[in-house]
Amino acid sequence: MDWSGIPPLAGLRAFEAAARNLGYSSAGRELNITHAAVAQQVRALETHLGVKLAERAGRGIALTPAGQTLSAGLTEGFGTVADTLRALSAAQANRPVHVTMTPCFAVSWFLPRMQLFTQSHPDVDLMVNPTPDLVVLDGTSCDVAIRFGTGDWPGLESEPLVPSNFVIVAAPSLLKGRKITEPSDLLSFHWLQELGTDEVAQWLAGRGLTLPRETHITNLPGYMLLGALREGQGVAATARVFVEGDLADGRLIALFEVTGGSPTAYHLVWRPGRQRPALKAFLRWIRQVASEESQDAAKE
Question: Which of 65, 141, 189, 235 makes the best surface tag, with the fewest CB within 10 Å?
């Protein structure tokens, strides 16, 4: 489209409002500008086009034949634009809420609670993407993420959702009564790690250790990690919130726990800006669930 011969949009908008209201004052109130500003923009439009569009008529205006022709065209054109924008807004408002999270969080925390959301919000569709990848939150293809860390993601809003320390755990069947007192005591064990993460190397490096070449790491999807842990197939680093029940029942043993320093948690993460109703409903629900469970845990 060639915009070079088209007058400024502000003038077209001012004339459309003035022509529809047959007055500069009412057009100014509609556009939230003064009536003088409307009249000035209409005169500038007349100069640009080289035709007279409106004339004074009492306290209002009367359209010339050229003005009537332009008014009809603008009303139809702006109406088409408005209809298109409304359709786009409706499509955006009604699309599923796209949530991304790690597979471990999805299986261990979110999925057991997801039915509570679908029951209380049957009109909101969810699209859950369990992945260890750091998905870009662009506000169109992905709405909100649940990420583990200290909450520092530049350009994004975040708030703690599920606090959790990081623990090194293993099944009693793997340890076979062996006493573990130092992180170096674990270097001879097989390790398990969620696919796409580097948690084992990071934890060991923080203690000045690296795994020997003969020690292997098996990388598993999050939904398989806890099952392999319980079967005694290796040692793993994971968020304590995922294994609280296993630790309480003795299926797993916490060998080391990361405490102190910057508090870690699973955070809600989203882009700043206006939120559509479906996203607001999801955020309100998941905050409430996490808060109620945290209060119940504190009472125990």
Answer: 65
Q: Where are the beta strands (DSSP E) in 115-227?
A: 126-130, 144-149, 157-163, 166-170, 191-194, 217-220
Query: Distance of CA 199 to CAs 202, 217, 253, Å?
Result: 5, 11, 18
Say whether 188 sits in a helix, a strand or coil. coil
Please indicate, yes or no, whether the overall pTM of this predicted structure exceeds 0.90.
Answer: no
Report CA torsion sign: 230, 235, 239, 240.
positive
Strands 157-163 and 235-239: unpaired
Q: How far apart are CA 140 and CA 75, in angstroms?
A: 31
User: Which parts of the chain are beta strand (E)?
Assistant: 54-57, 60-63, 97-101, 126-130, 144-149, 157-163, 166-170, 191-194, 217-220, 235-239, 253-258, 265-270
CA 41 to each of CA 5, 34, 82: distance values in angstroms, whole numbers, following the listed order: 17, 11, 22
